[in-house]
Specification:
The protein has four helices and no strands. By secondary structure, it is an all-alpha fold.
């Protein structure tokens, strides 16, 4: 596309997606954010952590840093450590900021 700055477009898209995700997250009652809808879907809290973790992996790749995949036990402990909205959103914000500042 002529005139499209792909780098700026990518950053704007990442920022917009993070904003929409957080907006949807806040639409869920805080007491329900750890619950699975009908027992068949992923709960909102761990899904937000997953989004932050994906941003971290992409940022490391852009910085050409090695990413070591955690063991299932370490991964479970990591996710379990995000037991509040504040911790979860802080992680998502930090990793989104990290992604946006990585050679994108």
């Amino acid at each position: 596309m002529p005139g499209l700055n792909l780098k700026d477009h990518l950053k704007a898209t990442i920022s917009h997606a993070a904003e929409l995700l957080e907006k949807d997250f806040h639409a869920i009652e805080e007491t329900k954010r750890s619950e699975s809808l009908g027992g068949t879907s992923r709960a909102a809290l761990p899904l937000m952590v997953e989004c932050g973790a994906v941003n971290l992996v992409f940022a490391k790749a852009l910085r050409q840093e090695e990413h070591v995949r955690p063991s299932p036990e370490d991964r479970a402990a990591f996710y379990a450590s995000f037991d509040t909205t504040e911790k979860t959103l802080a992680f998502l914000h930090e990793q989104t900021k990290g992604l946006l500042s990585s050679r994108t």
